Structure formats: C-alpha cells, structure tokens
Amino acid sequence: MKGVVFSFQIGEYGGEKKDKEKESGEMRQLNYLAGYPQQVTSQVNRLIAENRLAGFLNQTYPAAHDIRTDRALYDYAVSLKNEFLRSTQPLSRVIYDGKIQVIQNALGSHTFVSRVQGAKLKSKHEIRVASLFRDAPADFLRMIVVHELAHLREKEHNRAFYKLCEYMEPAYQRLEFHLRLYLTHLELTRQPPKQEQQLTPPLSTDPA
Ligand SMILES: [Zn+2]
Q1: How much distance in Å is there from the Cα of 154 to the middle of ligand 1?
Q2: Residue 103: what pLDDT?
Q3: What's residue 61's pLDDT?
Q4: pLDDT of residue 190
Q5: Residue 157 CA to ligand 1 centre (angstroms)
Q6: 127 sits in which H/E element
Q7: Do the Cβ atoms of 145 and 167 come closer than 8 Å?
Q8: Nearest alpha-carbon partner for 185 in 13, 1, 7
Q9: Dihedral sign, CA of 72, 66, 148, 87?
C-alpha cells in the first residue's frame, strides 16, 4: 500500500516552543540520538534548523501501511516469522499497545512466559508494538516487528541479535537510525504538555 504518511506541512515546527528553542540555539538536545557521534547530531540539528527533517522523512519513507488492527498486526508478524524464523516457537499474541510510551524507553516489547501446567511446560510468546507505529511509515513498522521477532532467538542485543535482524531486513541499521529521526520529528511537532514538569527522560539505545 502506498500513501503519504506525514500529514503535517514543512515549517510546522515551533508554535509555543519556538521562542524557547531559538534561545537555546542550535545545540538542541536530541533525546533519541543519545550516544550518537556529535558529527551526526549536528547534522540532524541542521536539518531541524532548516526545517528539512520532515521533508527528508517524507521523501525517504513515502509508503504508509494498512496494518491497523491487532489481528492484521498478528498476521503480519506471523508471515515475517514464517519467512525467516520458521523453526521458532509460535507467537501467542501480537498487539498494538497504547501504553508503551517512549517515556518507558521502549518501542516494543517481547515477553516470554513459561509456566508449568500439570506435567507440561507451557510457554507463551507475546509481542507488543507501541501504537505510534500504526501511523508510522511501513518500513518502521517492519523494523520494529523484525526487532521483536529476533528476540525469539536472541534475548540480548548482541552481535548475533543484530545479525539476525539484518538477515530479516538488510536495511535494519539504517531503519533504526531513521526511526530515531522520525521520533525526534514527532517530539518536535507534538503539542507541548500542559505541565512543564513533565520532562521526558532520554531514550536508552535499546528499545525493548
Ligand atoms: Zn530489544
């Protein structure tokens, strides 16, 4: 499915925050890019300052997706799993979760619960995807689902984990970086919270 993902116009940044941002100059704190080299963050800051971030994202990720329901998300995850990780255990549940906030340093989660029922060991694999991905470009949804599926094999974010992600999605590393740009964009265009005290802690480098 093709479509325009972003409904905003270029140049929409700012509103109430604009004056404050001007004061703080160009060295904006980029929460989603913590840990990235300064060369990268200053490039991103330049894109923001020149109002080019939205245009860049629109141009690079023009395709939306039509995976709106939990049922559709489950089918999507299962088909990716069947393509690449056929031998792993079945998924019991895949859902969008509106409670996963970026504040909790997570974009998705994967839980593996095993419990003994009588003589049997029952295990359940459940994947939750932050509901912001419902409206995100198709490539970003794919990236987060690939990430959570890779946890079926690798629990840690180690070398083997990222190799597996790249096996499923060769552009994985680029998508993860651009997802951070997308989240930065969302943060900049979101209505500022009413209470000034609600500060968003920086996102860790590890979603889920
Ligand atoms: Zn993870």
Answers
A1: 9
A2: 43
A3: 96
A4: 79
A5: 6
A6: strand 120-130
A7: no
A8: 13
A9: positive
Cβ-based neighbours of 95, under 8 Å, separated by 6 or more: 70, 73, 74, 126, 127, 128, 129
d(CA 191, CA 189): 6
Closest CA to 41 of 20, 27, 55, 24: 27
CA 124–ligand 1 middle distance (angstroms): 17
Q: How close is the Cα of 137 to the center of ligand 1, in Å?
A: 20
Mean pLDDT of 135-143: 95
Place of tokens 């792993």: 88
Strand order in the sheet with 120-130: 93-97, 120-130, 108-117
Q: What is the pTM of this model?
A: 0.74
In tens, the pLDDT along 189-204 reads: 875 544 443 344 444 4
What the block records as the tokens of 90 is 């079945």
DSSP H/E element including 111:
strand 108-117
Dist CA 102 CA 118 (whole Å): 39
- Summarize pLDDT for 5-23 with one digit per residue, the tens: 332 222 233 333 444 444 4
Domains (ranges, CATH) in the chain? 70-170 (3.30.2010.10)
Q: How far is the CA of 147 from the centre of ligand 1 (A)?
A: 6
Distance from Cα 106 to the centre of ligand 1, integer Å: 8
